[in-house]
Amino acid sequence: MTGAPRRLAGRARIALALTFALALCSASQAHGVAGGDAMFLETAQGVQFWPYLYLGAKHMFTGYDHLLFLLGVVFFLFRLRDVAIYVTMFSIGHSLTLLFGVLSGLRLDAHIVDAIIGFSVVYKAFDNLGGFRATLGRSPNQKAVVLIFGLVHGFGLATKLQDLSLSPDGLVPNMIAFNLGVELGQLAALAFILTALQLWRANPGYVRQAAAINLLVMACGVALIQMQLVGYWRAL
Q1: Cβ atoms of 65 and 121 closer than 8 Å
Q2: What backbone torsions phi and psi does residue 130 show, to the nearest 5 degrees?
Q3: Rounded CA gap, 106 and 213, in Å?
Q4: What is the pLDDT averaged over residues 185-210?
């Protein structure tokens, strides 16, 4: 493929990627536990390992704010070893605060937590664009950053469950199952993201297109922050 057909194919890939990112951004408003899932969680008694495992995976796979951050984390990672290290740091962070938040009863304002999650999306996209190197001369320790934001993302998951009246009977094993499900959902989403990135990197215009996508991801993060702050002020 050469000339005009190649340019058209490249533009089509960009358009598809932009559409996908915009869909993530708009769909993030639906992120939560509701409907039949919420009804089940509020009426379930005793240990319900497999249902909680499934709901954890479903929650993470549809957690568009978490997936946007994860996309930013792995965007410029080319070695599986690096991907494993960063994703492990993120998993440790959100596992700790998910379990601690629900089991301890510590309640944080969901709008503020989700606004910080939106900021994490903006932060990672800004870093991918070289913003910190341009303004500070260097990029902050990204492993530490991913771990810290992982802690925030875990509280974001916890606030969704704290909105429900969960039975204390079997709560600990159920939360462990939910967290395992979150990890499985994250792995499934990560496999999709890495496959898409690998195919995209074969495109000669990848670097130029990558800047446009990270700008759009940043815009989605800003939209998430704005949405949560508006929700916070309305709730006052």
Answers
A1: yes
A2: 80, 20
A3: 36
A4: 91
